[in-house]
Design goal:
The chain is α/β, with parallel strands linked by helices. The chain contains nine helices and nine strands. The chain is globular, with a radius of gyration of 19 Å. The N and C termini lie far apart (52 Å).
């Protein structure tokens, strides 16, 4: 039985498509609720906690689901095996376990089309006459048998439940090249566009946290972009009513505690974060998988 005593809300945010010239910038977010966790201890190692069903590596004799930095899991387009097989297995299996506000609402069938996947993850691709390349649809899964994927998802769901872990949200924001360029013309830069998406995800994390446990103080970890190590001014602009305490600013980690009328949260920006935080690795996989599906539509149109 799930209960709220000692619940830790643990979220990760990461992007895909920051550098490429074609296709959308995608920013993913994974939000977990972890039972019997002391927030004072900080985020737990979910790879250890979910060792029965999850692994880091792409190769595993126990057929556990790989969760890692998307750059390590996406295969080569020249290989015989489908390049998206590891990303797809992880993202669709986890998405099938998503509970949202109700702990008992789990065990969903994986989405059968990319349209359904985009809807479930809040990914809004422009499909107007100005962007006809996004108007097609792709059947899912693209790299797996649907029945086998459903078995993987059910096994993962049992493992999460046994470990006292719930996936509350798995979301992705897509910023198409046209919108990206409009924001650049309006005075934004690449870093600020990415951070704006991070801020919107933080608002979603806080909403999900309040729904799961009104007293929880969510821990949010983001992958650090570039050499930036000071985020207080940006955070104050995003959350003008918040008091902000700097918990640490180093060459590798910047961490802050924010409190406002909506509650408190801790947010950190870390280099190499995908190697330490499973929610960031899953967010990275989600952003990359959905971006690749968007590119499938684009390539189909221009083929």
């Amino acid at each position: 039985m799930w209960h709220n005593d000692g619940v830790l809300i643990y979220a990760g945010i990461d992007e895909a498509g920051y550098g490429p010239m074609l296709g959308p910038l995608c920013v993913g977010c994974a939000v977990f609720a972890i039972e019997d966790a002391d927030p004072a201890d900080g985020p737990p190692n979910l790879w250890d906690r979910l060792d029965d069903v999850v692994t880091r590596g792409a190769r595993d004799a126990r057929r556990r689901i790989a969760v890692d930095d998307s750059k390590k899991l996406k295969g080569s387009n020249q290989a015989k095996a489908h390049p998206l097989r590891h990303l797809e297995r992880g993202v669709l299996s986890f998405l099938s376990t998503r509970t949202g506000d109700e702990p008992s609402d789990r065990g969903h069938a994986p989405p059968a089309t990319d349209d359904a996947l985009f809807a479930l993850t809040g990914t809004d691709l422009p499909t107007t006459v100005a962007t006809p390349w996004y108007q097609s649809n792709t059947a899912l899964p693209v790299a797996h048998d649907a029945d086998a994927l459903a078995i993987d998802a059910a096994r993962l769901d049992r493992g999460l439940s046994a470990a006292g872990v719930r996936l509350l949200e798995l979301r992705c924001e897509a910023i198409d090249a046209g919108e990206f360029n409009r924001r650049l013309s309006a005075g934004s830069n690449k870093a600020s566009i990415n951070l704006d998406a991070v801020a919107r995800h933080v608002a979603d994390v806080r909403r999900a946290s309040r729904a799961a446990d009104a007293e929880a103080v969510p821990r949010i970890v983001c992958d650090r972009q570039g050499g930036r190590s000071h985020y207080r001014e940006w955070l104050q602009d995003c959350f003008p009513d918040a008091s902000i305490r700097i918990l640490g600013e180093t060459e590798t980690i910047s961490r802050y505690r924010l409190d406002d009328p909506g509650g408190g949260f801790v947010i950190g920006f870390e280099t190499g974060s995908e190697d330490r935080h499973l929610p960031i690795a899953l967010a990275s996989m989600t952003a990359k998988y959905l971006r690749e599906l968007a590119m499938v539509r684009m390539n189909r149109f221009f083929k």
